[in-house]
Each structure stands twice: as C-alpha cells, then as structure tokens.
Write a structure and sequence with these properties.
This protein is mostly helical. It has one domain (5-42). The chain is built from 3 helices and no strands. The protein has helices at 5-12, 19-28, 36-42. Helix 1 crosses helix 2 (19-28). The longest helix has 10 residues, at 19-28. The two termini are 20 Å apart.
Length: 43
Amino acid sequence: MLLDTSGLLCLHYQTEPFHSQAVTAYKKATTRLTHSYIVETFF
C-alpha cells in the first residue's frame, strides 16, 4: 500500500467520509510505504 496525504487524512480523522474504507484497507495491507514529503505535508 502506498500511503499518500489524502489517504493518511482519511485514516486519521474519523469525520472524513472515507474513514471506514481507509481503516479497512490499511488493516488488510501487508506492506505500507510512504515518503518523507508525504509525512511532511500531513503534519
């Protein structure tokens, strides 16, 4: 799974419309990748 900024936002904030789908996909993924630029824009 490639984690991008919008996916991390959906995963982190329960008020996001696709939060439950993001949590499900995150839990199913066996490998999770991101980049320092994505983490930087997330915070």
